[in-house]
Design a protein that fits this description.
The structure is a homooctamer. Chain A is about 45% helix and about 15% strand. Chain A is an alpha/beta fold.
Amino acid sequence: MALVGVVIGSKSDADLVQPGLDMLERLGIDYEVSVISGHRNPEKLREYGLKAEERGFEILIAAAGRAAHLPGILASWTTLPVIGVPLAAGELNGIDSLLSIVQMPAGVPVACVGIGTSGAQNAALLAAQILGIKYEEIKKAYRKYKAKLAEG
Amino acid sequence: MALVGVVIGSKSDADLVQPGLDMLERLGIDYEVSVISGHRNPEKLREYGLKAEERGFEILIAAAGRAAHLPGILASWTTLPVIGVPLAAGELNGIDSLLSIVQMPAGVPVACVGIGTSGAQNAALLAAQILGIKYEEIKKAYRKYKAKLAEG
Amino acid sequence: MALVGVVIGSKSDADLVQPGLDMLERLGIDYEVSVISGHRNPEKLREYGLKAEERGFEILIAAAGRAAHLPGILASWTTLPVIGVPLAAGELNGIDSLLSIVQMPAGVPVACVGIGTSGAQNAALLAAQILGIKYEEIKKAYRKYKAKLAEG
Amino acid sequence: MALVGVVIGSKSDADLVQPGLDMLERLGIDYEVSVISGHRNPEKLREYGLKAEERGFEILIAAAGRAAHLPGILASWTTLPVIGVPLAAGELNGIDSLLSIVQMPAGVPVACVGIGTSGAQNAALLAAQILGIKYEEIKKAYRKYKAKLAEG
Amino acid sequence: MALVGVVIGSKSDADLVQPGLDMLERLGIDYEVSVISGHRNPEKLREYGLKAEERGFEILIAAAGRAAHLPGILASWTTLPVIGVPLAAGELNGIDSLLSIVQMPAGVPVACVGIGTSGAQNAALLAAQILGIKYEEIKKAYRKYKAKLAEG
Amino acid sequence: MALVGVVIGSKSDADLVQPGLDMLERLGIDYEVSVISGHRNPEKLREYGLKAEERGFEILIAAAGRAAHLPGILASWTTLPVIGVPLAAGELNGIDSLLSIVQMPAGVPVACVGIGTSGAQNAALLAAQILGIKYEEIKKAYRKYKAKLAEG
Amino acid sequence: MALVGVVIGSKSDADLVQPGLDMLERLGIDYEVSVISGHRNPEKLREYGLKAEERGFEILIAAAGRAAHLPGILASWTTLPVIGVPLAAGELNGIDSLLSIVQMPAGVPVACVGIGTSGAQNAALLAAQILGIKYEEIKKAYRKYKAKLAEG
Amino acid sequence: MALVGVVIGSKSDADLVQPGLDMLERLGIDYEVSVISGHRNPEKLREYGLKAEERGFEILIAAAGRAAHLPGILASWTTLPVIGVPLAAGELNGIDSLLSIVQMPAGVPVACVGIGTSGAQNAALLAAQILGIKYEEIKKAYRKYKAKLAEG
């Protein structure tokens, strides 16, 4: 059963997010990817958010570009933690996405990481750190990764 | 019956939006103000959006600060035109709100005006221009306003 | 008879605006494209603006890059609603165009959409929403488009 | 007869421009101030621009805030050189005005100076330098000013 | 025993962070506040990071202004998840802090929230969401808070 | 005898400035190009500035990238008007050059135009407008150019 | 004999620089403050730069706001290391000064520190670190300061 | 024995820094390059910093992209002067790195140079200026370089 639900706004964002999915696999964390546009199909996103917890997800990752509302809308529909990944999908190279994700109003947080593929990787690692609080084997996998990182 | 539905994310934004409401009144356009946070109460915003048309609204104005998703979310729930007003409610003085409102993905437009109280006034005037396409008396009211403006 | 008048500042902007024209066609909305530089030929733009209404236009779309005054100047010459599309035609990638279009002074609004081709598409959709207030068949066409969008 | 025509968009900008007017006086340059909003009264601005030369102006200074189209529109109506002064009249503190003034498209230049009161002073000094090419006494006045400046 | 370790870079930041501490208390989450400058006393921050887990912390919150390295340095010394709060403590109003916190290189994530006091509140709520994955009573407290939020 | 002195900071900037030189030629204005780095050879720039007037120049154009001090330094050494052209020669794409040129302190103005090749063209046109105050044939050439521009 | 020459562009900047002077005193480093505007009196700045070394200065600190050319010009006239302090003296709050100081072209470096009073303090500390390479007692003074800093 | 210790965060940054290394060689300054990620291997960076002085380094250069903490962390572990070089290694083209390096809090300075390869060259030249205070032959080498620069 997938612990991490990954949502991207359109198929064209898949490549930018792939390094994050690879990282989840490397860390042995089950995930499921869905393509849902928060603006084009708000009903589907609502259902996804409302049922995320009963479906077994414990954390959500949402990636989007331009006016990147996806992570924030998702956060409004669930009590699970949501990690937001700003993508550089437009003329402003992601500074618009970053501000749209990180500057959430008090009350409904999104955990924002950096722009683009390194952000996607960090979203996976952050999910591992968070799940590691509860799951010993994920904690071990993350520690092993971090030790390797230090070796260079 | 109100033609214009005005939505603000929190009561603390009311003062910034007031000049826009005054303008609607001056132009003789009926409006109704609602306070709905897109992130704190997404269900209420959804209902507002889904029923906006049957309640008789023909155009919506939504004002918000920081990661200002309110106009975009509203636009996702309705087929009515949505005017977005970015407010300078935070440390970045509204550049975050502006980008969050204007950089909507292809498919779901928001009509963005300038930041703050002059933006709120222009939202009202834009609503008048738009409604003037259908309603002759609103067109006349707007023209009268514009003529006065030219006089100085 | 064309309901939408589209103005671009130079022929070199035509490609960036084309997706918006395609969208107007898809929605069955008649439009007419004019190439008028607001700065190089202000007299022609003035005449265009002053006669826009009597020629039957009900809404105008203006796209421009750099110091994008075109939508704002057009708005000064007409009482029709003007949608502004900022183009990334220069070293600053459209942030200059965006601010030049959206930060209009109180009194003369422009409805600004996002930068570039997705902005051009959204300008067309916004025009459809606005005209849909008056024209039932445009409202239907827009709804059909929006339903398709949700299907993905 | 005034050599310099100064245009401001609204009376509320008068204080920001005053140090520039004081500088013109100090340098013994005749000027005339007009309040004309480029957007609210485009006809008046057009007439001003078209008649500027026959009225004896040899250079124009235009100051404006937010989407500061005033100098650019003026430049479109005249062949006289136009100096633009961006004012910090809004939430973005003048960066919007600066880009709106300086990023003019190829073909219609505006000579942009810095934001705010020091910009207004420099507009006056630039006008003096420019008029000094033709008028020996203005050249002398400017040189005297510059020598004083060096003394501290 | 405190589950959340809160680190601020200097006592002068305490007021900006207080709303986040109040939120932790409201949600019944034990926390401990430390004042450690990442740059002035790197040894102390290292020890804090290295011992954070054995002292029982399960999540860390770090708030800082200007070149806000504190959350990132902390993340380098621990495998616990680190939430970063950018503070507007300087001339650039927090955009420097935001970029310094969120743009971490691939490998060492920080969960960034918005600038200032609303960011501090959201850091507390994000901590609650994260701890709620493991602790049922924190999940309940967070849900209760979220339900209240929706009521207005 | 050249009326316009054009200074560029390095030979690598020559291509970006060429459209401006072409424009000067088209308008029949004599010019002379010099390559002088304000920072690498301040003595040479000083001499250039101090002798610019006696050599017959009536206006100077200086183009530079990054921290573009060249126009400002030149302005400090001469009483001639200086037009500054910001070039996008670096990672920040010219926003650094633009601010370095336009934000001159009160007392020593630079007439700033837009970034890059369109800025270079506008520098030439601005020089023509300015020289046109004194030289009837340059005024005529500029008017002819402007009339052509309007034709399209 | 003063080892550090401090230059400010105008007396109005003195307060912003004072914390840096206090720091130099605390560290027992002799300094001399001069008020020289790089643009208003370039000759005086040139003489200052050319004679800085023979007067015994080993390092220079220059602070300026807006288009802050002062440190860069100084660096062009001397082979001594120059530390630049950007001041928030204008509408753009120092981002203009920062870019004008730090983005120097290859060949003529300036050592830039942060904006404002903390930048001024850091300029003093950086000078101490640099002079400490040669002077054992300054190294000791700096180490003592750094140890105190760690104590909090 | 190397006087200058150069640290880069990852091998992928080597090319951007190479022009700086070439410059050090040209000036006859011994240096040693190390690849140490401040975030991935903080222990190694700490040891590097703590031992930098006893190993004979008199100045350090650190280059990094994105949230470029490397120079600041290094500065926290040593009393040697640290020169920071922001690299454009990411979607925001180095403005994030620049702010992360230059906006250090009062107490722990970093000497920041410009973004990218010209910044790397200037870091080398700044190191030469600084070492030249103590070493006569480096001062001579730098002066010779500067004289060549002036020749063009």
